[in-house]
């Protein structure tokens, strides 16, 4: 017989102190059952004779780490978190919040509604709602400025950053930091207080209205300058913090709630929430049903160039022992210089102390001898994209690796099946495709071929998670070509841009259109930064589809020696030491001559034409990835594009953008865009929308 679920909140007594204990693993999210449980326990505690004070605490690893995000798109259920916070604040008996772990979002709002806060030494607090395109909606913008003042409140709410218990105490957010047992000290603190102290009525930071308004106005001007006049959530946050000065608490809460609802209904928030769920879904690998990650203590990386050194830094920062193998003494010295320079910069910028930087380097072994690989639990090959070089090296690695080691290749576009077979132990071999700079970029595509064992795949997943990366599974198979999600989408993006370049657009026009869409850089700015010769070499090494249109403009530029920033001249011209360029007039002449040779009459493109063509090209490539089974779900494609290629996170990703567009609008735009290019612009987005909506429905009903 199935047991009834355990109630997530219970009421205990410790003498004259009532103890409300939340237990809703894994993070004690404040869903409706928890909110109702806290309200009922609070009312029961107040009804009991002899109750002097009440402590709200939580079991498990954390105080409530926020609201239940799954309820965001559901009809509201009472008590709302705002109502619960008001109930706590209006308690006639003192209420103390005992905070441990991470009190985030709604969890911190609940703690601020309590009259006093006691925190464990390791506790951290924050209001991260801005990262979802919304703002704290249960009193965060009203109570926090009353506790810490407008400057610190705006810092916390606009950045979403967390503060430690010690900093929170200095700010006035926490009343006491527990030295030993949090629960015991919170109960003792509750016994020591004599009456409630309502945060909402606190006017300490509101007394100097002129200074308060000066802070608000300065921050509003800063937001407009840095983010623009249409930055919805940030400007609403500033307005709400202003309301904390100008309005009584209840009226301020009404302003906050209305602002939160407006943000919640925005396209920006929908995109950010989609990105949040997409990252969670991407880490759910089917192999988890059959295997668990193997223990990885020592990581070996073969290849100490920019990528290999970046992977080594990421591993060192996460506490792994690292062996880095590079060819020859000069290669070893160059790798050491790269890694040492990273730690010097980190110390200079205050990201690490000198002691931390030195400690990390003690776990690094740099060598030019492959026989040191025998101690590694995971070996990552990270040399140049040359099939012959990689197959030969992987065979050598396999001969030296211990039998239980997992072997990974960082290849970005070579055939993973061929590379896995070259090791002679394909079941132990996977792809780990890091994105540059590997020490910073959070994306890792995990390449899974048909022979890879579930444990090898899960070991790669566990390693990526331990690095703090966002892992995405890419199933590669014979005949697909590019084995990874990101490369396939990027090729479609660049191909669409190149066709428009050939047909009449300019590099700066295309770049500008994509920047206005939300990318930090356009495709030709990125090409210049990466180096045109790298993409050229890749194109020359791959067979071409005879039915696909090929644009030779970039090839002609490389043959002229125009390689981008590294040569000072590409699509743009760069002054020495400058990363910002001006349009290269010689490239415009080259393009005009190229059009004339091919008999192309240039046409005009609007920014919308450019954006729609590129978006639909990406979506169609994504639909093909889904059809081939390379990507497990449309949202995985969105994660790759957001983290790997700078797709604006506030839009969610290209597949979500397609879902937000009706089939009728897509069809009407297709007739305008380019019906002569069916491989790039077709009705495939409609298929992706159906697949995406079906997946969202299934996820909602299984979460």
UniProtKB/TrEMBL annotation:
Pathway: Lipid metabolism; fatty acid beta-oxidation. Its EC number is 1.1.1.35, 4.2.1.17, 5.1.2.3, 5.3.3.8. In the N-terminal section; belongs to the enoyl-CoA hydratase/isomerase family. Belongs to the enoyl-CoA hydratase/isomerase family. It comes from Litoreibacter arenae DSM 19593. GO terms for biological process: fatty acid beta-oxidation. Coiled coil: none annotated. It comes from the Bacteria. This is Enoyl-CoA hydratase / Delta(3)-cis-delta(2)-trans-enoyl-CoA isomerase. Residues 483-574, 612-673 form the 3-hydroxyacyl-CoA dehydrogenase C-terminal domain. GO terms for molecular function: (3S)-3-hydroxyacyl-CoA dehydrogenase (NAD+) activity; 3-hydroxybutyryl-CoA epimerase activity; delta(3)-delta(2)-enoyl-CoA isomerase activity; enoyl-CoA hydratase activity; NAD+ binding. It is found in: Peroxisome. Gene3D superfamilies: 1.10.1040.50, 2-enoyl-CoA Hydratase, Chain A, domain 1, NAD(P)-binding Rossmann-like Domain. It catalyses: a (3S)-3-hydroxyacyl-CoA + NAD(+) = a 3-oxoacyl-CoA + NADH + H(+). Pfam families: 3HCDH (PF00725), 3HCDH_N (PF02737), ECH_1 (PF00378). Monomer. Keywords: Fatty acid metabolism, Isomerase, Lipid degradation, Lipid metabolism, Lyase, Multifunctional enzyme, NAD, Oxidoreductase, Peroxisome. PANTHER family: 3-HYDROXYACYL-COA DEHYROGENASE, PEROXISOMAL BIFUNCTIONAL ENZYME.
